[in-house]
Give the backbone structure.
Amino acid sequence: MVVRDGSYPFRGPSVTCSKGGYRPATDQLTVTRTYLHPMTDSELESEYEVAVVGGGPAGLTAALYTTRLGHDTVVINRGGGRAAMMLDTHNVIGVTEDVSGNEFLRTAQQQVQAYGADYHRDFVSDAERLEDGRIRLGASDAEVVVDHVVLATGFSDVKPDPPLPRTGRGLHWCLHCDAYMFVDQPVWVMGTGEAAAKVAMIMLNFTDEVDLLTRGDEPEWSEETDRQLAAHPVDIIHEDVAEIEKGEDGWLEALVFEDGRRRAYRGGFPMYGSDYNTDLAEQLGVELNDDGTVAVDDHGHTSVEGVSAVGDVVPGHNQIPVAMGQGAKAGIGIHYRLREYPRPLDEIESEGEVTTDQVPGISGRMRERAREHNADAAAPPVETGETSSADD
Ligand SMILES: Cc1cc2nc3c(=O)[nH]c(=O)nc-3n(C[C@H](O)[C@H](O)[C@H](O)COP(=O)(O)OP(=O)(O)OC[C@H]3O[C@@H](n4cnc5c(N)ncnc54)[C@H](O)[C@@H]3O)c2cc1C
């Protein structure tokens, strides 16, 4: 998506302002608001209520919620990650598919900063519980102490050896995102485990040409799966890949195998597993599941007080809308834990009633940022003089 003048991420028709909200343009004057400031590294405080480690869709959504629910929040993000690998975006309603992962993330980062979160590009290498119960996070050139940490660190796909096609042009890492583009196209699935065998059979829902490539390695799928596989029209090719053939547009056209055989393909899925980024979770003593994901409850809270986890690093479908949903639930869950009011009855008995000088409950810094943002948002939109002919 092209981000112009800080306008919201709609592709195609520009947006018009209607009673404080946005809707697709009609043939009215095109207007833009300018309150999404350019994304830069923030000057960091030493203490926050919430730190989000990882700035993919999961972490940025968690940060959006904690910020808009009034909590001092910092996002510390190394950059890259799975969303950044997307050449185009699928399955995110309201975002057109020509939006790249980097464009999507940049807009999200700007939104979160515009609401008042701090953003810092860095790798968090250590995390420890302090005596006062808070958590210290150490990055290469930053250190923060926080009440609550959200781990949104994702995973890395285990990559097979080259030769391989280009990601998004014949090499695909996301079945639920990309199976649709292979309807009636020849497809390969690579790997020797259960997942590879299952995905090969699943792809028969989309096309009648599916090959399973073991690349010279011994199959490790179960005998039962082997019988199931034998009952489906999937060709198993054991020879390793010797050469890749691409078209002028960069898309895969064929694989040539070591025995000289050439098979035409549009693309395929390597299935070699995931390396979960759980170093920080382990340093904080968080419980992991047998598959390496972080164990969480329904609101993304881990087994350790003050630590949540969201997105690809927790169990679930590895999809942006799912990661965003988990981020939203975790952000709201953190607000329930951290918000000042209502003061519980036992605290009213020990500390007294809430007095007017104790409210509002949010910090002076967040209060100032929200006021600044809301003043910008309420400013009259700038008329550009252009008209749009897009239909409502
Ligand atoms: C090629 C590809 C295409 C895809 N296409 C789609 C699609 O079209 N639609 C869809 O719904 N899904 C798609 N997916 C899946 C989607 O990208 C993921 O489900 C989603 O990005 C998960 O979000 P996340 O925030 O959990 O993790 P990520 O997007 O992986 O972000 C994790 C972030 O955490 C950072 N990080 C990790 N450890 C640290 C640390 N210690 N300190 C600081 N930062 C750290 C990483 O650098 C990264 O920026 C695709 C995936 C791939 C690989």
